[in-house]
Design a protein that fits this description.
single chain, alpha+beta, four-stranded antiparallel sheet, 6 helices, 6 strands
């Protein structure tokens, strides 16, 4: 059992009294993005434990969930995935560099919607690097450099969106 709380969509954060004990499976079930749709495939345990170590799933304006950072035992995870009639991805079917949940989401976009994983990952890492450099420049008081990096990151985000839209195969109704 893990102490966790649902985050409100808007307004002030949860009170201490809102926290409750939850099963690990309840926390995983709240994030529908972990499963690859009709393939019924979940990420490897290492990705799940990286996700659980964060202690938060933020849906922005849609709320989310916060929990005490933890890891999940393999037998608990395997039992949860089997209970849904799903399976865990094996190492041979996924790219070897999928170690964090963002990479899993990108792989999922590749499998479900045809957005190439490798290109998506490279663009995402470029954006993260520019954002990190921007924060560092800002901390050092170099506002001119921080502003320039901010706009470079903004352009990289546009490039990423264009890449996604060029490749995505939208499901037919």
């Amino acid at each position: 059992m893990i102490r966790a709380v649902y985050l409100p969509a808007t307004g002030p954060g949860p009170e201490e009294s809102d926290w409750k004990l939850m099963e690990e499976a309840e926390i995983l079930a709240d994030n529908r993005m972990l499963k690859i749709g009709s393939l019924q495939v979940f990420p490897p345990l290492a990705v799940i434990n990286e996700y659980m170590s964060r202690g938060i799933y933020d849906r922005g304006m849609g709320g989310g969930m916060r929990w005490e950072p933890c890891s999940i035992a393999s037998e608990v995870y395997e039992r949860y995935v089997r209970s849904l009639g799903c399976r865990i991805a094996n190492a041979e079917e996924i790219p070897g560099d999928i170690e964090v949940v963002e990479h899993w989401y990108m792989y999922r976009q590749d499998v479900l919607y045809g957005v190439p994983y490798e290109g998506n990952r490279i663009l995402h890492e470029r954006i993260q690097d520019l954002q990190r450099q921007c924060l560092e420049a800002d901390k050092q008081g170099d506002t001119a450099r921080a502003d320039a990096l901010y706009w470079q990151a903004n352009e990289a985000e546009k490039e990423s969106a264009d890449f996604f839209n060029r490749h995505v195969k939208r499901p037919q109704p």
